[in-house]
Specification:
alpha+beta
């Protein structure tokens, strides 16, 4: 049955307008994005197929162009639209971080880090450069490594901080392997970087590990910093 034949209050778009986006399921939200289905499948059915194929909404949103367009009913045009939506979300969160202290919106920090790092197949070390009021100056991907390791040089971090006149930093890196807990090497690196930045009176406020799935781990919340 086509969505237009559904009761009006059950159609995803009308439901969103009357009850808010939070009232919709993942499939219903995705159906609004898809707009139309294919022969024999409504947009909601197609959305359910996509979610079933990828397993989770996160894997769907982070799929490669080839993986996404291999599913019948969607293609590169829809993939491009989805990536545009994801980038808008990143930029919207980044705006929040530049307008107020990061400590006023810890959830936004985590959300931005997940959108920025969780989908990457390679390990990336990211630095959030903050001003004296702990507002975001700039986020910089400082080092990129392999699936299992990356090389981070304190000298390069110090140069970056001085170039932006940052007063504090938040460090973050992803674990493409999926491990949520920091390794001993992560702990040692954090100590080295904290000590190096301490020499120029710049504080490391936190270090986040961002796994491929799940919540980003804060060193401060875990009592590790």
């Amino acid at each position: 049955m086509a969505i237009t034949d559904w009761p009006e209050n059950e159609r995803p778009r009308e439901k969103l307008l009357s009850r808010g986006a939070q009232a919709l399921s993942d499939a219903e939200l995705l159906a609004i994005f898809l707009r139309v289905g294919i022969r024999g499948l409504s947009a909601v059915d197609l959305a359910r197929n996509l979610l079933s194929h990828f397993g989770t909404l996160t894997r769907l949103c982070n799929a490669s162009a080839a993986e996404f367009s291999a599913v019948p009913g969607v293609g590169l045009a829809k993939y491009a639209q989805l990536q545009a939506v994801m980038e808008l979300a990143r930029r919207s969160l980044a705006e929040c971080l530049t307008e107020s202290s990061l400590f006023d919106s810890p959830a936004a920090v985590r959300d931005w880090l997940r959108l920025h790092l969780a989908h990457l197949a390679h390990e990336t070390f990211c630095v959030l450069l903050l001003d004296a009021r702990h507002r975001l100056i700039e986020a910089v991907d400082l080092f990129r490594g392999t699936l299992t390791q990356t090389s981070v040089y304190p000298r390069e971090l110090v140069k970056l901080v001085l170039a932006h006149n940052a007063a504090a930093v938040i460090l973050a890196h992803n674990h493409p392997s999926g491990a949520a807990e920091p390794s001993q090497a992560d702990l040692e690196l954090t100590r080295i970087l904290r000590d190096a930045l301490g020499l120029i009176d710049v504080k490391v406020l936190d270090h986040f590990v961002v796994p491929a799935q799940g919540k980003a781990l804060s060193f401060v919340e875990g009592g590790l910093l």
